[in-house]
Amino acid sequence: SQQGEEDPQALSIQEGENATMNCSYKTSINNLQWYRQNSGRGLVHLILIRSNEREKHSGRLRVTLDTSKKSSSLLITASRAADTASYFCATVDTGNNRLAFGKGNQVVVIP
Amino acid sequence: DTGVSQDPRHKITKRGQNVTFRCDPISEHNRLYWYRQTLGQGPEFLTYFQNEAQLEKSRLLSDRFSAERPKGSFSTLEIQRTEQGDSAMYLCASSLDREGNQPQHFGDGTRLSIL
Fold first, then answer.
1. SS (H, E, C) chain B
2. Which tens digits make up the pLDDT trace of B36-54?
3. Which residue among A33, A96, A97 sits closest to B103, beta carbon to beta carbon?
4. Nearest-CA residue of chain B relative to A9?
5. pLDDT, tens digit, for every residue of A4-46?
């Protein structure tokens, strides 16, 4: 079943701008992960944040997690045309091992 | 670096036929997952293995679906008597899970089209 709800679902920005996506979920989680998917390809893992963490950075990515609001955000700074992709949040619930994905955000970065 | 590979990349078949997909995970990964993704949606969990043991199956996995991982390495997913609703991308992922907090590494999927 689908878990996360990403917001906005489609985003179009100019190269160099920042892109922010939000994700909400409903259950008690072990961790939350963000993935990127280019058209027709598999998913690429970007970043994992554990339930006891509040913020994490990886290169141009910044992820926050608010377990009280059951929400997460992904910020991509200084976007590039190559960042054009679909971005999914996925949760791993406490007590199981499956990833529960949202519907994804489509991000288009205009050169 | 040898990632997760899936074969075939595309499969077109007529309704009612059986199809089988193969997934080769990253060699040292003990966990292997199957997901299904339809257009405009996120992947949906189907089943997962730890080594050769199938530990969890989704309710999406009807009795027409069967998955195996006989030696704890590659896995196969078979769909019998295919239906048009089976058209989707079938994704395989693997992970090395010691603490339950490891990312999953995905293959590029098998796109199934049922005529």
1. CCCCEEECCEEEECCCCCEEEEEECCCCCCEEEEEEECCCCCCEEEEEEECCEEEEECCCCCCCEEEECCCCCCEEEEECCCCHHHCEEEEEEEECCCCCCCCCEECCCEEEEEC
2. 999 989 999 999 999 999 9
3. A33
4. B40
5. 666 667 899 999 999 999 999 998 999 999 999 999 899 999 9
